[in-house]
Amino acid sequence: MKGHAPSEQDSIDKWEVQLRKGCLELAILAALWEGKLYGLEILRRLESDSDLIVSEGTVYPLLSRLKVLGLVRSEWVESDAGHPRKYYALTAAGKHRSREMAAMWSRFSSSMSRLLAPLTKEK
Amino acid sequence: MPDNAQQKIEAYLGRLRQLLRGMNSEDANEIVEELRSHLAEKAAANGQITAAGVDAALTLLGTPEELATQYTTDALLARAEVSRSPLRILESLFRWASLSVAGFLVLLTSIVGYFLGGALMLCAVLKTIHPQSGGLWAFPNGADTEFSLRLGFGTPPPGGRDLLGWWIVPVGLIVGCGLVILTTRLALWCFRQYRQSLVLPRR
């Protein structure tokens, strides 16, 4: 904790956490777009393809939530590693939802970029 | 050290399983198995599980308490959103109440909301069976006036006045139904706010 204005840093951190969490659902659905993956693969995909710093403890509960909502389905597959892995795949509803969310996201992000352009220009 | 490492994993998963006991056991077991599989792979370096690897993997997952709270609220919220029946909502709220004070307050509010809504609808229906004594009544109680939603059992109190008459049927049904819907919306909204507020362990 820095001596000056810890509360400001705190509220920026919180805002960032909320921002990441808001995107996480779409990020997971997007990771599954090209085919089934198991939990750790999803985590690795999120790490390598994005700078969404994701806490692992968040992704697994979110996956089971997406399953209850019918957006993904899961199956256990035996592996060479000696333990079975739980694979997730998008359902038809999940694909539909991902497309919708992606379109919404694109619109949203381009209007935000336009709006933020003056703030992010180099000094 | 693999034995020690294995013990750590089992202790962690055992604690998590214990915390998930409110869920149906098939779901809880599946969660534990999935995390066991995750830890086995995450904690292994060159195919061998090491104690340091286990420690690191467990830290990244968060404590069993944090994980259980997320699983429970996520599952409850998803199920409540899918069904939206007051019984399902109340069931979820009961579990939420066991997790946090906020949940307890929302549970109390929801019980009042559902109870009042249900009583209004019941009163509207029973008015058709007990036209003389059912309905919303006002009667004197000392210097005050007391209001009472009567289902029509027994005789109305002396000096009482039926305020709405037959209007209780449409009013009771509409207001009661609206109250139930409003309570459901409010409970789900609060639940979502709570889920958003769960702060996660950061790396």
Question: Could you explain the architecture of this structure?
Answer:
The complex is a heterodimer of chains A (123) and B (203). Chain A has 123 residues and is mainly alpha-helical. Chain A has helices spanning 6-31, 39-49, 56-68, 92-120, and strands spanning 37-38, 72-77, 85-90. Chain A has a single domain (6-120), classed as Arc Repressor Mutant, subunit A. The mean pLDDT of chain A is 86. Chain B has two domains: 1-61, no CATH class; 65-203, no CATH class. In chain B, α1 packs parallel to α4. Helices cover 68% and strands 10% of the residues of chain B. Classes of the chains: A mainly alpha (123), B mainly alpha (203). At the A-B interface, α1 and α3 of A face α2 and α4 of B.
Short synopsis of the structure:
The complex is a heterodimer of chains A (123) and B (203). Chain A is mainly α. Chain A has helices at residues 6-31, 39-49, 56-68, 92-120, and strands at 37-38, 72-77, 85-90.
